[in-house]
Records
---
Amino acid sequence: MRTLEQTTQEVLDLASKHFKVPAGSLAPEDDFFKKLGIDSLQTLEMLSRLENHFGIELPDYEVQGVSDFRTLAARIQSRL
Amino acid sequence: MLDLSKYQSIGAALKDALEEFSNEVCLIEADREREKERLTYRDFKERARPLAKALQDEGFAMGDRASIIMTNQSKWLISAYAIFYAGGVLVPLDYKLTPDEQWQLLKHSGAKVLITEYPIWRQMSVAAGRAAATNVSSVVVTEAPMNVDLDGAIRWEEFRGNGEPIFVPRTRKEVACIVYSSGTGGRPKGCMMTHENYLEQCVALTSIYPFSPGVRYLSILPTNHAIDFMVGFFGPFICGATVVHLRTLRPEYVREAFSKYKITYVSLVPLVLKNLQKGLQTRFDELPAGKRRIFNVIVAINKALTKSRPRLGLSRRLLRPVHDPFGGELRTIIVGGAFTEPQTLQFFYDLGIPVANGYGLTEAGTAITVNDLKPFRADTVGMPLPGMEIRIVNAGADGIGEVSVRSKTIMSGYLNEPELTAEAIVDGWLMTGDLGRVDATGHLQLFGRKKNMIVTEEGKNIYPEDIEAVFDSLPVKEFCVFAANYIWPQRSMVGEQLLLALHLEPGQTYSEELRRDISARNSKLLNYKRIHGVVLFDEDFPRTASLKIKRNSLAEQLARLDRANVFLPL
């Protein structure tokens, strides 16, 4: 079972890979809309990648209003 | 289609539609690759009946208000029908608002009943704003796990009345819905839409984009939005068509739904349409040079053959690889909620996929103008729908002025706001605050806004007053949020931005610490509500006797500054 820290790191790694930003340039407290310059639609794409990676289903409502990696990781962690 | 001229209310028309089309499929609900539900109009009636009875058993009576806060799904429409059946007024609210914003609007609307879904209720039930909304006496929650405490709410599955509910008739001039066009932070603008507004709008829209049994509409825009309420509920239902709901809007499942359910119509916001365009363009760019040349020739042939009107069958045959992923039966993509760039519209039209753009406001029903595609005019938002009159007020030499509208679809007013209503509706004409021109062929072209607000590509109306609270106690002398185009008109409907005008304390500088503070507060706003930059102003803001900022005067003073020099991006 992953710890929240591990999950958070994997979320950051996957986001940096998916959106082609340097590894290590993202931090848990970063606002992903702002940091990655993405819109709500691109966020949904990122969620699909995360679901595949973690092997979970993350309903859209679970991430409603979430904009930072740490909270997103916590929502994922609760479903692992 | 039912003859809506015979009906007095949405409820009465829907009631007859459920009988008329009882064996047709009215709703399909899918969650990812799984189809969760498929209901006929008869099934729909059976689902709504116990809910309507339960509402009446709870004392819900004619004119009482009930709110729905749900993602798009069959229970949204079933609940709405039950409310209309019982003679109620529907208050559809945006599920994407924060819980406190939702409570604020519930309080303002005077809703007695709230129907929502468990994940939303989980957040709303613990929000501070709940305490003030004492008018909400019953909360019905769908899909709640069996082992959780609902904090005073009732489970949808258990909220069932026995016996026949009584149909409560309403008349055309009575309020059917209270729809909020804005105002979660400032003065809520609850548009009181009458039954007549919807009946007339439906007649006008379906005259151009008809529904019938067998037509399938993919419902993606939130149903609380005027467009989806009309073309994803009322319109298809009174014609016996099918509405498809997806519980997740991930692009891969939306794409799959087109071919799986042979979608006929879909409504999208410009952001999604542009994303589709990007995806298609990438596919075309990746074609080998030879194939690319052939493809371009076929597109050119299609363009020539569809110059005067769409020819769907022909375009589908010519450009099959483009059309097949859309299911092969897509007639039109309806785009709304915000302005769509002409090149995006043209891109799809050239591929033989007509995009019906238009222009509308919540206050005016759903749509005022729609592109009828005869011929397609990407540079305009189409011609007025039947029954709509457009007048350009205070037009300049170039013919551009404020667009005003008169029709039976105009709201009766803003709830509890006679002054705002009087400003918005002058001698029966709705003053839209948008700048436009009607060309020689009767098509409306838009050229920016006169009002202090922006509309995002996701179709969200953002009023500066609504987001100022997040900057309360900012360590500066005073501040005010504006739509940048309101200060420096761009004559454009795209790329709109919000700015924060700051008047610093004497001797204070715009430090990195202050910038970070603003940025951190900005991050607390939903992404589409955020400001884009700061403008420093070194004079006292003009204020009224009661010390309210005179926004118009301040905007005029700011307009004298050169945007390029003073706008500091965040």
---
Amino acid sequence: MRRVAVIGVGMTKFGKHDRSSAELFAEAAADAIVDADIPPSRIESLYFGNVTGGETERQLHMAPLAATALGLPTIPTTRLETACATSHAAFRHAVMEIASGVSDIVLVGGAERVLNVPTDAATEYFAYCSDATYEQSLGLTFPGVFALIARAHMDRFGTTEEQMAHVAVKNHRHGLLNAKAQFRKEITLETVLKSPYVADPLKLFDCCPFTDGGAAVVLASADVARTRNNAVWVLATEAAADTMFIHEKPDLSRITATERAAARAYQRAGKTPADVDVVELHDCFTIAEIVATEGLGFFEPGGGAVAAEKGVTSLGGKIPVNPSGGLKSKGHPIGATGAAQITEIVTQLRGAAGARQVEGARTGLVHTLGGNAATVLVSLFGRD
Amino acid sequence: MTERVITLQSFFEEARAGRLTAVRCASCGTLAVPPKEFCPACQRRAWETVPLTGSGKVTSFTVIRIPPRGRAPEAPYAVAVVRLDEGLSMLGRVVDVPLDTLKTGLPVKFRPVVSEGNTVIGFGPA
């Protein structure tokens, strides 16, 4: 297979927008194409991610609409949906299109718009990513799903609500340094611990927000990438899956799809967790970051909570996690999240992350999780 | 070709009548809810229907306080993962248990929760 590189990245400000998902994606994609320094006509195809457009915008067939909004109406497009892992899954397919030799330059990304509907409607639409008959019918929400995981982690390892709160405080501190973040406000442990329960034991400040936004990356074959100064290599991009059903997972304190995707990605890239300098991972809830840092091999099972408490995952710590502010502070427009995480890691590996730069970062990891931990993608990136 | 032993519809019709059912692999004995075509353990396609006692213990739970659209009158309500005596787990709404007494390890027993013609899995005091 051919080597693939990221040659351009772009994302909108995350937060509330009075623009459609197609418009948000088009802005991010145009920025990514300008960043790649190629004529737009060089783009050969688009892999596009969006989850709730049918519900929040009454809009399907959104990929050609997004290409049309970008001004490239004739490129072939594909829309993917794997819940919150949507645009990372789209990224993997775009990588495969180039690696296989079908195309040389491919655009990938996604967008989401949900702040135009009330919170209870958005909560309902996101719950569509769990099973309709056995789970949604019980009134189970996504905070509820991760609350079940949090309870299992607390029972098994003694993880505390205060340790989970450290993740929120850290990611808000990082988000303060990111001009594109939805929330740029430091919070204290007390802010988190005194916030109301959403789904016990998770409180409001354990949860990422609803967000509008778009993100995009331009991928290229090695022949094109070698003519660029800013190319960042895709060392591996792996997907793993697990049963859709919460009740079929034998140990809720672990997310085995993360463990399997990570193991394959490390093997393909010839890397180990110790080689990773900077991480963007799926902190949709504080407990999700803790479980992910364990599944990715940075800490033993149960060690993620202690690491968060001790600052090991903070900027300046041994393994900085979510320097962008993560989903918690940067925001989580679910169709755009994977591409936005990749944008941050590429920016870090270029040494262009400004105040939140992880000094000397050469190898970065992106982890994105979809739905009831049924879909996980892990990709590794590096500079020559 | 095998005859389908449980469908989504028949599972919930049985549940409504108070009978919790699973499928068991005739080859290796693996129990499953919901049914699948191939046994995840041995890859055979030979299922039979078996009744479950409905007795088990809570292994994880949450209290939903911010519900999805249309469920505000029900909130707060609890959803729990219950490990049944037969060894497989099910997710259900917790009923007739005070929320502040809910804990992991609590023994519970299946009961159907029917509202507006829809049936969901519920668990009440053992």
